Model the fold of this input.
Amino acid sequence: MKKAIGWIILGLIVILAGWRIIQAISTRQRTYKKLAEQTEVKTAVKTVSAALGEISSSITFTGTVVGDDQATAYSDAPGKLLRYEVQEGQHVSRDQTIALIDRSIPGMEYKPARARAPISGTVSRLFLDQGAMVAPQIPVALVINTGRLKVAFNVSERYRSLIRKGMAAAITVDNLPDRRFEGTIDRVSSFVDPSSRAAYAEVVVRNPKGLMPGNFADVVVVTETHTDALVLPREAVIENLASGEHQAYVIVNGKASLRTLEVGIMNDRQVEVRAGIDPGDQVVTSGKEFLKDGAELEVVE
Done:
């Protein structure tokens, strides 16, 4: 009997001890949770206010600056190049002598023949070395009227329907990085070369001073412009590579709200948003890589 009572007392002690342990663990968990809530770190972010504005899409092509009016000088008689009378970059007038051609043969001497400038302009290239053989079909020099220049470029088949005569274009060249030249598309071939799958096009430059024939140039053509569009800076938009969706974080009551966007025009700097946010929404631009939906935020300047 005494032995049974002892076992009962021991069981009660074990149960009481277990209950106290459970209570202590529960109390500790509640304390940790409360401390975590009190010490939760807010993510620092920078934001921009979604606003209406203008946005454009453009296509960049690579071309070469050429003269709108250019011609090649030839000799009227065969012989050897005696010497050039001009230098590259020099301005010449129409019919001015560019080179002298020695047309003498053994036992007979003749007055040197001349290669003359076919137009007034700037000598762009001198093709031959002194003593080189010259014939009427061999070019001696290239003369370009630099008062009116154009940029020749190729338009791939993909973009041919977007490029039309009369469209504005901006031209930049590497040796003049701070200059921007304005031009107008003057020609777009309707023929697509089957070997290159591209059509030939030309932009006439309206302010060519400083450009030189032979310069490589970037031609930027604006193909579409939307006004009164809801626009975000490119850095505010997340491109989800897995789903193909465009997203952005909007601040709602101090927390991050992940929105899926319907986008329109996108360029290097801006994105047009057709749905997903409203004008005036505060959208995260910096710090979004550390966010998740519902995260507490602290906006910094």
